[in-house]
Amino acid sequence: MSSANPLPPSSSSGAQPSGPAEFALPLDRLIGKASATSLEKHLGLTTVGELLNYFPRRYLNRGELTPIDKIPVNEDVTIMARVLSVTKRRMRERKGFITDVVVTDDTGALAGLKISFFNGFKAEKELQPRALALFSGKVTLYNHARTLTNPLFELLPDDELAGHEAEFHAQRPLPVYSATAKLPSWKIQRVVETVLAAVDFSRLRDPLPLGIVRREKFVDLEEAYRQIHAPSEPADWQRARDRFRYQEALVLQTALVRRRAQTAAEEATARRGTADGLLAAFDAALPFTLTPGQQSVGDVLAAELSVDHPMNRLLQGEVGSGKTVVALRAMLQVIDSGGQAALLAPTEVLAAQHYQSIRAILGPLAADGILGGLLSGAGGDAPGGVNGDVPASTQVTLLTGSMPAAARKRALLDAASGTAGIIIGTHALLSDNVRFFDLGLIVVDEQHRFGVEQRDVLRNKAHKPPHLLVMTATPIPRTVAMTVFGDLEMSVLRELPAGRAPISTHQVGLVENPGWVRRIWSRAREEIDAGHQVYVVCPKIGDDSDDSDDSDGDDGGYDGSVGDGSGYGSGGVGGAGPLLSAASTGQQGASADQGNPAGRPAGASRPDLAEVNTVVEQLRTEPALAGARIEALHGRLDTEDKADTMAAFVAGDVDVLVSTTVIEVGVDVHNATMMVILDADRFGISQLHQLRGRVGRGGLPGTCLLVTALEPPHPSRRRLDAVAATTDGFVLSQEDLKLRREGDILGASQSGGRSTLRLLRVLAHEDIIARAREDAAEIVRKDPQLRENSALEAAIEAYLNPEKEAFLERG
Ligand code: ADP
Ligand code: MG
């Protein structure tokens, strides 16, 4: 998904107070230097507000001990357990002793968990059999047994104590904070209690409007803070959590709705087009009829381009639904009105492909080089003749970072002089030296690689705010769209053009069917013999840097790298052996994946993942493919080689294209009918869906083989099941969300730092987000400047710009 925060840092330097003074107090005023230093060092918390907004991650009930067999290995955990036995032994090699404490979860599990303390004087003294305690540390596997070594611990008041106090204690949920090895949860809890007692909550202003608090029957803000940190019963923290969750949704949605209102209110140049311009000529020559969806979205765009406020629209569409034509028609309308259009693509390969296919589909409407530019510029130096002349053609220009200097200079000149009507490029379009004569429309293709900041850089290259059309690569769930693209209006292309042949997708598990390797290549042979072409996709390039393909000229970091940054790892140790040799059924280390259901990165990558360079060599000697023309494509090739290879594949001069995910988005070769994805388990669902969308485009049925060397029960194979089961991108995007971790959904910048979603989960809380969206729209409609909602405004500022917030607090 998006690679960036849904909203850019606010640029307003408004001097309004950024929150209640009480919350801005430095922590050391309330809790003493040592604790404050520790909180800052380990958790980065410096103010009262930051600490109080550091919510417990979960709660323990004193009656329920942590199930020992569910404790994840190699993660920092806090567990509640009862001591079963304590024994002491001498160390053999060194001086000193070890105290072995065995704890149980009261489930009668025989083994219990072994905890070892080196020189554990304190443990030996305090941990008596039957004692109840919290332990905090990392559980490791030692000789196949779970062990906790030198954890921090804290005794809990024993629930077996007689008396009123014990009963009271027994009910209170125990908050568990995300802790570190040096700062256990219970220390954080104690500091929070001190702070709760000292804060003057009466000075706190609630970001939630009173009407909403009443309607939703939320607890008030003070109570919410108390209940989330120090609940008396489970219902307390649940109520508090509900209110903070809603608050989070409202702050985010109001920020987005306000941004949308602000940009929509800006003044733009209306681009009404002409009745007898390029667009009309294009439509007349179009070799197919537009789908009803393309037609109606086209009407919406045409109308929005025609008014003097900027269009800001997201176009979601199924893979292959024909978004490019829709965008191109909008571009032509703008050119017909004397403006230029920029098309921003995430990779060089895609930019080059767009350049070629747009020129091809424009046919004679695309002016060629300088000559065409001169011809079309007959009415002046602006594209399409600003003087009211109807242009006969427009120049399409490509601009990427790794173009030869001379060509690049020409492209820059054509953009700045207005000779070029359509400028297609990568991130290179964002650089400072790129100027436009009159940029009227920005189209961002396959948006998930671009953040709002980048959109803004381009917007600022226009004299007046330009119109904006953003297109997603695959459909995304409604609430994700609302959250990630919440500042844009939304259009959806659901249907595919008629006559599309189906793609059949099969999972090829080499563990179960080692012999199938051969059959894959004989299938490929059949396609080639029928005159068709084949893609083979590998997760790695296989040069000495031994890395996934994360560089594509100037697009560093944004190119289709493995797992689009979500780090899908197989986690298997032991390796499966080279995927392509028939005997590749090595043992997968399934045990290492327990507690790793979503298939998260496993640190060291699996050896022997399919690599472009190796696979090319192997396929060239593969008997079934004898005589086939096989070429490699990946981001580290130089631009010319990339372009040559891609052009040769488009021309049908290459039978098998072995590549990385550089072909993931947008590439459109109608004659390609088969795709073999090696180590398919390394890719995410939407990535696989997007990849497979490269075949079956020309009315010829497509076949996609998802090859994996993982054991059938491996969790990563669930993604392959999902992709094989349906070609409905909307279904897959839901499925994808379920299998992913939240941080991956909103991109890297959302998973760390303070402006992450904390309580809100875009999939689970769809209704909350939708309700907050409605409330936000209502609030902004009635009070666009948020004058009546200054506490909400302050919360938005704090959300958008935590650094500034921190600065003001310290200042
Ligand atoms: P995507 O939405 O995935 O970007 P493209 O814009 O690349 O899809 O379109 C896929 C292919 O379908 C292109 O070759 C395009 O020319 C073709 N196409 C687009 N619209 C139609 C249509 N209405 N009828 C037939 N083919 C179409
Ligand atoms: Mg596309």
TrEMBL record:
Acidic residues compositional bias, start-end: 544-557
Biased composition annotated in UniProt, kind: Gly residues: 558-577
Molecular function as annotated in GO: ATP binding; DNA binding; DNA helicase activity; hydrolase activity
UniProt cross-references to Pfam families, sorted A to Z: DEAD (PF00270), Helicase_C (PF00271), RecG_dom3_C (PF19833), RecG_wedge (PF17191)
Biased composition (Low complexity): 581-595
Top-level taxonomy: Bacteria, Bacillati, Actinomycetota, Actinomycetes, Micrococcales
All copies of domain Helicase C-terminal, residue ranges: 585-738
Entry keyword set: ATP-binding, DNA damage, DNA repair, DNA-binding, Helicase, Hydrolase, Nucleotide-binding
GO biological process: DNA repair
Start and end residues of each stretch annotated as Disordered: 539-608
Name this protein carries in UniProt: Probable DNA 3'-5' helicase RecG
UniProt cross-references to InterPro entries, sorted A to Z: DEAD/DEAH_box_helicase_dom, Helicase_ATP-bd, Helicase_C-like, NA-bd_OB-fold, P-loop_NTPase, RecG/Mfd, RecG_dom3_C, RecG_wedge
Keyword Nucleotide-binding: yes
Domain Helicase ATP-binding: 304-493
Keyword Transcription (UniProt): no
CDD domains: RecG_wedge_OBF
SMART domains (alphabetical): DEXDc, HELICc
